[in-house]
Known about the structure:
Elements: E1 5-14, E2 17-27, E3 32-36, H1 43-50, E4 58-63, E5 66-67, H2 73-83, E6 84-87, H3 99-110, H4 116-126, H5 142-155, E7 160-164, H6 172-184, E8 191-195, H7 199-203, E9 207-212, E10 215-218
Helix pairs in contact: 3-4, 3-5, 4-5
Bound molecules: adenosine-5'-triphosphate and magnesium ion.
Magnesium ion binds next to helix 1.
Amino acid sequence: MGNLLELQGISKSFGDDIILSDISFALAPETVVAIIGQSGGGKTTLLSIMGLLQKATTGRVLIAGQSVECLSPHKMAKVRGQYLSFVFQRARLINYLTALENVIAPAWFIRRGEKVEQQAKALLERFGLSHRLEHKPQELSLGQLRRISLARALLLKPSILLADEPTNDLDPALAEEVAGCLLGARQTGTSVVIVTHDLGLAARADQTFRLADGTLHAVAGQ
Length: 222
Ligand SMILES: Nc1ncnc2c1ncn2[C@@H]1O[C@H](COP(=O)(O)OP(=O)(O)OP(=O)(O)O)[C@@H](O)[C@H]1O
Ligand SMILES: [Mg+2]
């Protein structure tokens, strides 16, 4: 099977500010890739272009071999729903739903008939959140919100999971649990791109890249 996601000559500017410059990248099936780099360097911007949430200034994005530039917003949303799942740097949960409902909501529509509630509870238990199932986002800590976002993304069993600093705000034991889940996802058919400042986590990925001065370089030794 070919690459799940490809970037060809991606550049991104905000006004005169060049954030990304001629980036090419390919994500193979069942692979974990880490992206490291300075704060403000453009990692979140790059991830949002991979996830079709933001358009590049120039260049092409291909998902499962299909170029998405010419797709209508409706078709693009479909591709996003079919292939992609996100863990955002700032957790975006629905405020009026409980933790458990937030995890279940997207999977409920996509994986109808499957035991999503049971699986959601198992994931939340794994992430140490069994005692917070009925709490709403405003009653939860940043680390708890992050774990709920990750459970929500994993429950969708996506082909591509994009995770922006997923181990931030977590104590070492929970960070390890989350890292284990992300690294293990490749065994169940998910490719993962992790943006992280955690060099230990990055070293455990199949490949690591550094984003610096707008360009992406493979880190030697991997
Ligand atoms: N919509 C926007 N308009 C203007 N500038 C933007 C916009 N989005 C991001 N930027 C700028 O692009 C640069 C890269 O931001 P980005 O969030 O991608 O960095 P990052 O590498 O994820 O940083 P961090 O590690 O702190 O999360 C920053 O200087 C930011 O101010
Ligand atoms: Mg960021």
